[in-house]
Amino acid sequence: MRTVTFDFENDEARFKVLINDEEQYSIWPADLAVPGGWTETGVNASKAECDAYLEETWTDMRPKSLRLALDGE
Q: Is residue 3, in this structure, part of any structural domain at all?
């Protein structure tokens, strides 16, 4: 088993913002392959820029299925 470590605090590091089918987001090192179940959003930036994007975009952290169930859809 290979273990990959990554310095998320490195100011020069680049990241991708990913989204899954439940509309949950994650940041991921830009030079690594996207893991199964996740899709790129098109955002590829510094961690600070990715964090700002998530702050603006991911306003409801509940999974999509829970939102739909609670909203009666």
A: no
Residue 64 near residue 21, CB atoms below 8 Å = yes
8 occurs within a structural domain: no
Cα separation, 40 vs 20, in Å, equals 9
- For residue 28, what are the CA distances in angstroms to 8, 24, 41, 48? 9, 13, 11, 13
pTM of the model: 0.83
How far apart CA 27 and CA 5 sit, in angstroms, is 14
What is the C-alpha to C-alpha distance for residues 21 and 39, in angstroms, rounded to an integer? Answer: 9
* Per-residue model confidence as pLDDT tens digits over 5-40: 677 778 889 999 999 999 999 999 999 999 999 999
Tokens of 16: 């991708």
